[in-house]
Amino acid sequence: MGGRITGTLNKATLLKRDNLISVLEVCRKLKTTPPEILAEGMLLIRQIALSPVAGAKSVEEQNALIASLPDKVRDRLVKYVMASCDIASTLMEYGYPKLARVEHTGADGGAIQLEQVKISGGHVVNERFTDGAS
Q: What are the residues whose beta carbons fall under 8 Å from the beta carbon of 86, sequence distance 6 or more?
């Protein structure tokens, strides 16, 4: 038999017992969604990370400012920018559907047979060829 053991508390009960609320409840109270919260966090992290180079007027100037930073500050900048990128990649799932890979094959898993019909000077010419994976 599967399922919950009698007497085991569910997530909502555990959260209430510890005086916590779920992410969805937070979102409802703030009238926002998890992707919006992630986006705000991403922008904040990015802004903090890039604050040492905020005055740069060009990419070259920005690169020079980054190169002049102490290693510890530069490492922190990279860490924050990477965190921002991680959040951005998580957000992509909400905006772009994941595409499954599809493999096309011919009959019985063999090569795909293609046929091309050309009309040239009033004559119909058939050309048959395969994808070359024979």
A: none
| Closest among 115, 118, 119 to 129, alpha carbons compared | 115
Give yes or no for a contact between 87 and 38, defined as CB atoms under 8 angstroms apart: yes
Q: What angle do CA 48, 50, 38 make, to 5 degrees?
A: 50
Beta strand extents in the chain (DSSP E only): 113-120, 123-130
User: Which pLDDT does position 104 carry in this prediction?
Assistant: 81
Rounded to whole angstroms, the Cα distance separating 25 from 33 reads 10
The identity of residue 128, as a single letter, is R
Over the chain (134 residues), what is each successive 10-residue block's mean pLDDT? 75 71 73 81 84 85 87 87 84 75 82 72 63 52
Domain locations along the chain: 11-95, 103-134
Q: Are 126 and 115 in contact (CB under 8 A)?
A: yes
Q: Choose among 51, 55, 43: nearest CA to 76.
A: 51
Q: Which of these, 54, 47, 53, 121, lies nearest to 84 by C-alpha position?
A: 47
Helix axes 23-30, 34-50, angle to 10 degrees: 90
